[in-house]
Amino acid sequence: MARKNARTSERGSQESRFVKRAALLCCFALLASIAAFAKAPDKYIYDPAHTQILFSVDHLGFSHPHGRFDRFKGGFIFDPAHPEASAVQISIEADSIDMASKDWERMLKGSNFLNTAKYPVIVFKSTKIEKTGDRTGRMTGDLTILNVTKPVTLNVTYNKSGIHPYNKNYIAGFSAVTKINRSDFGMTWGLPGIGDEVNIDLQVEGIRQDFEDIRK
Predict the structure, then answer these.
(1) Whether residue 192 has a cis bond before it, omega within 30° of 0
(2) Is the pLDDT of residue 22 over 50?
(3) What CATH homologous superfamily does 40-215 map to?
(4) CB distance 56 to 64 below 8 Å
(5) Residue 190, class by beta-carbon neighbours within 10 Å (0-12 exposed, 13-18 middle, 19+ buried)?
(6) Average pLDDT, integer, range 167-178
(7) In the chain, domain spans
(8) Which of 9, 88, 118, 183 lies deepest, with the highest CB count within 10 Å?
(9) Which residues pair with 171 in a beta bridge?
(10) Backbone angles phi, psi at 17, to 5 degrees
């Protein structure tokens, strides 16, 4: 009888250990699943062919000519489910300014304006992103021009994410607008005839960086 009780007790102990191991395995599986879903936001780099940095300024009251910057690098991280966790960085080559006029470009690259020989790079880094609607947000960041850094807020529209029908890359597209005063960065030449307020219009397409790995 004592032997039977001992065997019963041993069997019960083995079953208890099995149940505990099974419970631990379930916990590990659950944690792994949560980690998979709680991954970091996706990383993107700018598609230079379909990203445009545009601006316009009042010219003596006659017109509001447009210009652009053609060379830049950087990228962003983006999670459509949690846009507040996103971040943006871009470095613009100031010397790449394009006004469709060599004389005009030469003037804007000079010491009265961008002084590109001394300050070759314009930099923006986001510091805060707020969701304002289903596809809209407000992005605040630090803009550095002529080695002067000022906070700037952009109104952003999330256009679309998806697989590009031709090159098969995964693309996220955005539009953003803001205004700055050039005098805030020390560019005061020509005021007030040449406007102080600069209207900025950004059209952005980013190429997701891990998408090739996901498709394999």
Answers:
(1) yes
(2) no
(3) Lipid/polyisoprenoid-binding, YceI-like (2.40.128.110)
(4) yes
(5) middle
(6) 96
(7) 1-38, 40-215
(8) 88
(9) 162, 207
(10) -65, -40
On whether the pTM is more than 0.85, the answer is no
**Which residue type sits at 22?**
A
Q: How confident is the model at residue 211 (pLDDT cuts 50, 70, 90)?
A: low
Taking only the tens place, the pLDDT of each residue in 40-68 is 679 999 999 999 999 999 999 999 999 99
145, HSE (Cβ side, Cα atoms, 13 Å): 19
- Taking residue 7's Cβ as centre, other Cβ atoms within 10 Å add up to 10
CA dihedral (77, 81, 83, 89) in degrees, to 10, reads: 10
**How many DSSP H helices and E strands does the chain contain?**
3, 11
Compute the CA torsion angle 121, 127, 132, 133 (nearest 10 deg). 70
